[in-house]
Design a protein that fits this description.
homodimer; 4-stranded mixed sheet; 7-stranded mixed sheet; 348 residues; alpha+beta; 10 helices; Phosphoribosyl-aminoimidazole Synthetase, Chain A, domain 2
Chain lengths: 348, 348
């Protein structure tokens, strides 16, 4: 759909070392902590007296992305930001990434450069150094594994297990957009397959398409917390859907919660397109996933500081474990909260 | 060939989170630096005043391993040790790993447990904590990505670019075994495919088979260096073959070298089996790869300390750049050293 076939250089012409050299030749290390980057057996990092925070994620073609409608540059960008999101959700600052890529020779050098340009764009925007990785062949699909490394003062790190009774349950940004964007792309793919002459009708849907194809990580949240002098008691990023993430926090913290449907932030475009697809916008927010917003709990004493913050919605509160995890619907009825989020192993 | 079909639990029965929980339930953190392991958005590591050393590697089915003759337990073990090898080759101590696995539902829970038992066995033997990872689906092949993290005092870290003129060129252990082991496995696979009734004839070849299927990382070398009060000037692990690694050191250090064929350590079993395959044992050592021995250079003043060490062979010396990188054959003729090692992108 978005393919560009202007030129093609075969990867065989470069070889593995040549490809790595070609792709990494313009890397300049930006962070003082990046002592040694690409080009040795391992990268060397020096955080002095900070703690190291580290996370890894694998993206597999046909499972996490569909190259029919995913531009490679966006894919590279997304593969970085979804990992940075894990570091921000620890209230830490990402500094370095390592990227492993497996690809078959159906990809040209130009295609890999596109992918790489998205990776380096994300590195530039987020102030990250690409310090290592691995480049190898696959027999069919494209696989990308990113490891993100960050730093934080011990006292600032926020885990999933610190939520306390009467804490406020909060979320950044708005939810459900990435999932509705995916539905739109899947619909246009289907139409395109049936009628290859028809151009995809994606106009006017930029927001939800970007939420799906080129999500940002909430780099600003740790800074907002710092400015407001707040340390969340628990935090997690929303990759599998709001419901699944709330249950993670409640299970690991040994608490219950009440989530108020009417408080869940949903963008008008997400809402309208969801309705056009006969989808319940709340369900999209609860179970759609891939929004990469941050879900967190804070002490109720911080209520005044956050209640009018445009980047934060208070969507519920933490209760005792015996009360369970509940969704209070717009009509006031109470349902047990269930995770029906994206489950990789059921998605066959 | 080595398959075990005693029982089979479908992965769908567990789901992604269930699988992760099942596999990681018995993990106990061993290292003081492992502050937080599996179970949050990211792992947290505290090396205090040491530097962090980090490396990542991807293993792809059909490219790096063949499940026809690779027991899953060995594969799990190897996927860890080949990464640890990168950390040891920086003269650092590995402490943690993160493991990402993509698998299709042709694998049962029992199969993944086998793979995982190899991973945890390697962790136990090398004193490593498994602190994070990702588990996802693939549409066909198995992909494993391991990120290894270690620590070192700044002054002890050894890079590839420090080799100096008149340094001794040394290698640990012996070379070529992993490659000859692979030839043996490939031969038996071919026979097995043509005559499924014939049992594979692998007896008496344990050493070279283990070199291929279940290689160890040279954990002892950094300790030997410490004991002898030696810091190598440059070091690299042998994954692509001796020739390729020597050229990496020489290129990055801006030097030349003379490598003496007669000094290259080759185990008698490797030598004999290579000859049976009509392979030149020296070529197997130079270009076979996957031996995971350490290649390093040391100041000539350390000659007395290492000349009789049973774990170390002095195989040549570093010269000036203009002399080039040369192989001095047993008959005394001099050839330019060429890397014809395993090149992932040419291996289609």
């Amino acid at each position: 759909m978005f393919e560009n076939k202007s030129s093609r250089t075969e990867l065989e012409a470069l070889g593995e070392f040549g490809l790595i050299k070609h792709l990494t030749q313009f890397i300049n290390l930006k962070n003082e902590s990046s002592v040694k980057g690409v080009g040795d057996d391992a990268a060397v990092i020096d955080y002095k007296n900070k703690q190291t925070v580290i996370s890894t994620d694998m993206l597999v073609e046909g499972v996490h992305f569909d190259l029919t409608y995913t531009p490679l540059k966006h894919l590279g960008y997304k593969s970085v930001t979804v990992n940075l999101s894990d570091i921000y959700s620890m209230n830490a600052t990402p500094r370095q990434i390592l990227v492993s890529i497996a690809l078959s020779n159906r990809f040209s050098l130009e295609a890999i450069e596109e992918l790489y340009s998205g990776i380096t764009l994300a590195c530039d925007r987020y102030g990250i150094d690409l310090v290592g990785g691995d480049t190898t062949t696959s027999q069919s699909g494209l696989v990308i594994n990113v490891t993100a490394i960050g730093e934080a003062d011990k006292k600032n790190i926020v885990y999933r297990d610190g939520a306390k009774e009467s804490n406020l349950l909060c979320v950044s940004g708005d939810l459900g957009g990435a999932y509705v964007g995916l539905q739109l792309l899947e619909r246009e793919k289907k139409i395109f397959k049936e009628n290859p002459g028809v151009q995809p009708d994606l106009e006017g849907n930029d927001y939800i398409l970007e939420r799906q194809l080129k999500p940002e990580a909430r780099k600003d949240l740790p800074l907002i917390f710092e400015g407001l002098e707040i340390t969340p008691t628990a935090m997690i990023d929303i990759s599998d859907g709001l419901a699944s993430e709330i249950l993670h926090i409640c299970t690991q913290s040994g608490v219950g919660c009440n989530l108020y449907e009417e408080k869940i932030p949903i963008d008008p475009m997400t809402f309208n397109r969801a309705r056009e697809f006969n989808l319940d916008p709340t369900t999209c927010a609860l179970n759609g996933g891939e929004d990469y917003e941050l879900l967190f709990t804070v002490d109720i004493s911080h209520y005044e500081k956050i209640k009018d913050n445009p980047d934060i919605s208070i969507i519920g509160h933490i209760s005792d474990k015996n009360s369970g995890c509940n969704l209070v619907s717009k009509s006031g009825t109470v349902h047990p909260l269930k995770a029906q989020g994206w489950d990789a192993l059921l998605k066959k």
